[in-house]
Design goal:
Length: about 325
């Protein structure tokens, strides 16, 4: 019988860095036992071990390109787990992003400036795989993942406010979402995936065109199609029990002299977030907060519901 030559860590790492999703899955499988041993040594047995393992897998997806010594990827993966576990042990308050992992120092390979998750994903072909997997999650699980990991609405309390559920429910949904995302990623590694960056680019054009059209007081056809008559505004700017269309509300805000400037876009097939910086006229009563986000739930491209979210000021 001919000997079986398994791919080396170096080979798998280089393949993963070039965008081969299955290679990263093999790396995580090969090192799962040693990674879990690190988590257990720091946290003891319990559900937090599984959370740390899931977070570490997400960090590996986002930062595999940072590994400079592919042959030593095992040590790098264990460092990811170690730092994730220590972060949980010493955390005295919530940290935005991937459970604070955006700011971890991963040995000598940490970037000089932390990058937002979507910026890191954009650097690798795996971004389409991740977004494709997220589209397969239940809407309520997909929403908490998008808010927590890709938007500026990151604290558990902010997410609870947006979803209108208790903070405990947010924690539970995030735990379920990470577990299911890991399973879907593994099952869909070899499938073709839609271009996530193209979706975000299209949504950016829509956002800018909507802002410009609103200021001009006329929505061209391609923009008005985004906001059909059945679109409903809900939340703080809507009226409970009454159907309110977003366009008149936009118009009233503009008439007060408030201006919005697009700062960030998160886009999936069914959920889109446009984050805005806001300016108010001097002396305006009840000024608008300096930041807000348009959270849109869509079907067949059209917006069904819009919720304007005002993130809580940083303490």
């Amino acid at each position: 019988m001919l000997p079986i030559h398994l791919p080396s860590d170096e080979d798998l790492t280089r393949r993963a860095q070039s965008g081969e999703t299955g290679a990263l899955g093999l790396l995580l499988t090969h090192h799962q036992a040693s990674m879990r041993a690190v988590a257990l040594s720091l946290l003891g047995s319990g559900p937090e071990v599984d959370d740390v393992m899931q977070d570490a897998a997400l960090v590996a997806l986002r930062r595999i390109g940072d590994v400079r010594e592919p042959a030593a990827v095992g040590a790098w993966l264990r460092a990811v787990v170690r730092n994730a576990a220590r972060m949980r042990l010493r955390a005295t308050r919530e940290t935005p992003g991937l459970e604070g992992l955006d700011h971890l120092l991963l040995g000598d390979h940490a970037p000089s400036q932390p990058s937002r998750p979507e910026m890191l994903i954009e650097q690798h072909a795996m971004r389409d795989w991740i977004w494709g997997a997220m589209e397969q999650l239940q809407p309520q699980l997909r929403l908490v993942l998008i808010l927590r990991y890709f938007s500026g609405i990151t604290s558990y309390q902010e997410i609870a406010d947006v979803c209108e559920v208790p903070v405990g429910t947010v924690r539970s949904r995030l735990h379920q979402a990470r577990e299911k995302l890991a399973r879907v990623l593994l099952a869909s590694a070899e499938e073709a995936h839609d271009d996530a960056s193209a979706l975000a680019e299209d949504s950016t054009h829509e956002a800018l065109a909507t802002l410009v059209a609103s200021e001009r007081g006329h929505l061209p056809r391609e923009i008005s199609e985004l906001w059909p008559e059945e679109t409903e505004m809900v939340g703080i700017l809507g009226k409970p029990g009454e159907h309110v269309h977003p366009v008149p509300v936009m118009r009233r805000v503009l008439e007060k002299g408030v201006r919005q400037y697009l700062s960030h876009v998160v886009a999936s097939q069914a959920i889109t977030i446009w984050e805005m910086d806001v300016t108010n006229p001097v002396g305006i009563p009840n000024p608008c907060p300096e930041r807000l986000a348009w959270l849109m739930f869509r079907r067949n491209r059209r917006v069904e519901r819009l919720r304007v979210v005002f993130p809580r000021p940083a303490l």
